[in-house]
Specification:
This protein is an alpha/beta fold and about 210 residues long. Helix 7 runs parallel beside helix 8. It has a 5-stranded parallel β-sheet. The protein is globular and about 45 Å long. The protein has 10 helices and 5 strands. The longest helix is centred in the middle third of the chain and has 18 residues.
């Protein structure tokens, strides 16, 4: 996990210098989440924090969970990861093993909050992994549906064109990362389940009787 240490250390320092208020919705995962530059504006009425880091795998998300997510005491977590695991040659079975590690961390520290996993997207640069992506997405869906307050957002079909191929306009030129237009698709899908996924902010001061 040394490859991630520089970026994670920098994030930890930012959290130490400017600690966020508890009860935000934490967005977590890989660079596809980290590069969502309009995230705070897109969900300005929700209260969000982006803790994603570049190149991360589900294994890395589980490894750094206590260092990044736990101190923020979120009211909900939205995660995108698994893409890089498959890109690194992991099988769907191995990806699911890593996902269960992450889910175990979530349930240990925050057993009652909503946890949302986005499906793996149909990146043009990873079309050779299409079969593995589809199998993994189906497994992620089954796994998260077994958790109370677990949610699955299927971004895969929404990022395909009318010909059934990845919609190039929803991706950057590298064919891997998401374009601003693509993030609008993600935003729309998340908003369609906002009541479940984001829930109401937890009051910082109890109401008087």
């Amino acid at each position: 996990m040394e490859w991630y240490e520089q970026e994670v250390n920098a994030m930890e320092e930012r959290l130490r210098v400017s600690p966020p208020p508890p009860g935000l919705v934490v967005f977590y995962g890989s660079s596809s989440m980290r590069m969502w530059e309009s995230l705070e504006d897109d969900f300005c009425d929700i209260g969000v924090m982006n803790l994603a880091f570049g190149g991360s795998t589900l294994d890395a998300c589980a490894w750094f969970f206590e260092r990044l997510v736990v101190p923020c005491q979120p009211r909900s977590i939205v995660c995108y990861a698994g893409d890089n695991d498959l890109g690194d040659g992991k099988t769907p079975v191995e990806v699911m093993s890593s996902f269960r590690k992450l889910l175990a961390k979530v349930d240990l520290h925050f057993p009652k909050i909503p946890f949302t996993i986005l499906s793996i997207k149909p990146s043009p640069a990873r079309q050779h992994l299409t079969d593995r992506i589809i199998v993994t997405n189906e497994a992620l869906h089954r796994e998260i549906m077994g958790r109370d307050n677990g949610y699955f957002i299927d971004i895969y079909p929404a990022m395909l064109g009318g010909d059934g191929q990845p919609d190039q306009s929803l991706f950057l030129e590298d064919g891997l990362h998401v374009s601003p237009k693509g993030y609008l698709v993600w935003k729309r899908l998340l908003q369609s389940r906002s009541t479940d996924i984001f829930c109401e902010p937890i009051p910082l001061v109890p109401a008087t009787v």
